[in-house]
TrEMBL record:
Residues involved in ADP binding: G149, V150, S151, R152, T153, S154, K155, T156
Keyword Transferase in annotation: yes
Keyword annotations from UniProtKB, A to Z: Kinase, Nucleotide-binding, Serine/threonine-protein kinase, Transferase
Organism: Paenibacillus pinisoli
Function: Bifunctional serine/threonine kinase and phosphorylase involved in the regulation of the pyruvate, phosphate dikinase (PPDK) by catalyzing its phosphorylation/dephosphorylation.
Organism superkingdom: Bacteria
InterPro entries linked: Kinase-pyrophosphorylase (IPR005177), PPDK_reg (IPR026565)
The family this protein is said to belong to: Belongs to the pyruvate, phosphate/water dikinase regulatory protein family. PDRP subfamily.
Reactions mediated catalytically: N(tele)-phospho-L-histidyl/L-threonyl-[pyruvate, phosphate dikinase] + ADP = N(tele)-phospho-L-histidyl/O-phospho-L-threonyl-[pyruvate, phosphate dikinase] + AMP + H(+); N(tele)-phospho-L-histidyl/O-phospho-L-threonyl-[pyruvate, phosphate dikinase] + phosphate + H(+) = N(tele)-phospho-L-histidyl/L-threonyl-[pyruvate, phosphate dikinase] + diphosphate
Protein name listed in UniProt: Putative pyruvate, phosphate dikinase regulatory protein
Pfam families: Kinase-PPPase
UniProt GO molecular function: ADP binding; ATP binding; phosphotransferase activity, phosphate group as acceptor; protein serine/threonine kinase activity
EC number: 2.7.11.32, 2.7.4.27
Length: 266
């Protein structure tokens, strides 16, 4: 049986079209369809070969081509071969032209230009990794955002998500046996955010974590009384810092990050 694909084609890196393709795949139960990416396309011959391959495998194409000649060639070839091709950026760019009367730069890869924002994002990602999980208390002073909370309240994934927005984030786990470092209490030029969760939900997450690690479910880590004690202690620390608190129970990382970024902007 021929392997079906979503062919992702771009005259730049192709991350935008691939992100859309992945989001689409998540809406379907089928695991048979794979993604195949072709980046930095420059010639009509390259496009013709990809369209021919898509026709042979019974697949379709998702593309972000900012060069109008290549976009037109993709449209013509896909019609000629009977292949469905989805122009991810074209309609949006045309809407911009029609609405605002401005014309695109037609430069592939502008999203990934090596500019100040790019360097700031890379620096923030490195910062988040370096100061994850309270590894070095100095990060609590240097960070723009400090996330505090008990174990498994999404501190690390939230730190990484925010770092991709160019925000320097450090995070610190709270537990009754360990006093928070003095750096946490220093006067801010940073935003400290407490993360909390409903105890029943936290118990479920920690139990699954123990199962994944092959550890007994009876461990103290997933004990209901222990969890409540940790949450109560964390709440007292947050109250002492007078910091805003977000209940992350059933809240997506993107939603929590959006709240924090709004606070930062204010």
């Amino acid at each position: 049986m021929t392997q079906p694909y979503i062919y992702v084609c771009s005259d730049a890196v192709g991350e935008t079209a691939e992100a859309v393709a992945k989001a689409t795949l998540r809406q379907f139960a089928s695991e048979d369809v794979k993604i195949k990416r072709y980046s930095h396309l420059r010639t009509e011959d390259e496009i013709a070969r990809i369209v021919a391959e898509a026709a042979e495998t019974g697949s379709f194409i998702s593309y972000t081509l900012v060069q109008p000649e290549l976009r037109e060639w993709m449209r013509e070839e896909s019609v000629r071969r009977g292949v469905r091709a989805v122009d991810v950026m074209g309609p949006m760019m045309q809407a911009f032209v029609d609405t605002f009367g401005s014309f695109p730069k037609r430069e592939p890869g502008l999203l990934h230009s090596i500019d100040e924002a790019y360097h700031r994002r890379i620096e923030a990602i490195e910062f988040a990794v370096k100061y994850d999980d309270g590894k070095d208390a100095r990060g609590l002073v240097q960070a723009q955002v400090v996330l505090i909370g008990v174990s498994r309240t999404s501190k690390t994934p939230l730190s990484i998500f925010l770092s991709h927005k160019g925000i320097k984030v450090a995070n610190l786990p709270l537990m009754p046996e360990v006093n928070p470092p003095e750096e946490l209490k220093q006067e801010p030029g940073r935003l400290i955010v407490g993360l909390t969760m409903q105890p029943e939900h936290l118990l479920e997450i920690r139990s699954e974590r123990l199962k994944t690690l092959g550890l007994p479910s009876s461990a103290q880590y997933a004990n209901q009384e222990r969890i409540q004690a940790e949450l109560d202690y964390a709440a007292s620390v947050m109250a002492g810092l007078n910091c805003p608190v977000i209940d992350v129970t059933n809240r997506a990382i993107e939603e929590t990050a959006g709240i924090i970024m709004e606070w930062l902007n204010k």
